[in-house]
Amino acid sequence: VAGNLTRNFSRIRNSAGGSGYVLDTTVTIGYDTPWRQVHSMLIEAAAATPEILDDPAPYVVQTALSDFYVAYKLVVNVGTDVPSARAKAASDLHAAIQDAFNRHGVQIMSPHYFGDPSSPKVVTRDNWHTQPDSSKK
User: Fold this and answer.
1) Residue 16 to residue 9: CA distance in whole angstroms
2) Of the candidates 90, 68, 62, 79, which has an alpha carbon nearest to the alpha carbon of residue 15?
3) Bridge partner residues of 71 (DSSP)
4) Which of 2, 10, 119, 130 is the most exposed place for a label (fewest CB within 10 A)?
5) What is the largest CA-CA distance in the chain?
6) How many helices (H) and strands (E) does the chain have?
7) What is the DSSP letter of 77?
8) How many beta carbons lie within 10 A of that of residue 2, not counting itself?
9) Backbone angles phi, psi at 75, to 5 degrees
């Protein structure tokens, strides 16, 4: 190992000469949601996340066609070399994904999905900032 060249493919360099790293996340969405809509919502979420670079552009790949859902992987580039910023960028991206899917009324499925609920499991915009219930301690 010590005598071989090792390349870090998670590191990127954009056309402006800046550097950063690749970050990806996966969501699973039921077949009843058009795949083009899912791609658009994921790209919308990436655009709403300050740490995500426009160059190279974020993209979506479908990684699995499972029994009850499609697995979509969003691949983005984060414009920092600071490793500690990775967790914040991932968290901000996940929050933006939840907001985009809730805004469009699309339920994010889990790998343990077995059937459609009686109503979509989304958070409506008027409940986005509900305070925790302090009486349940």
Assistant:
1) 19
2) 79
3) 28, 64
4) 2
5) 61
6) 2, 4
7) E
8) 4
9) -115, 125
**3-57 pLDDT tens trace:** 665 444 445 554 545 678 899 999 999 888 999 999 999 999 999 999 999 999 9
Both tokens of residue 24? 């990806």
Question: In which residue are the tokens 């071989």 written?
Answer: 4
* pTM exceeds cut of 0.85: no
Cα–Cα distance measured from residue 25 to residue 72, given in angstroms and rounded to the nearest whole number:
8
- CA dist., res. 80 & res. 88, Å (int): 11
- 56-114 pLDDT per residue, tens: 999 999 999 988 889 999 999 998 877 778 889 999 999 999 999 999 999 887 766 66
Rg, the chain, Cα only:
18
Euclidean distance between the first and final Cα of the chain, in Å?
A: 53
User: Residue type at 21?
Assistant: Y
What length does the chain have? Answer: 137
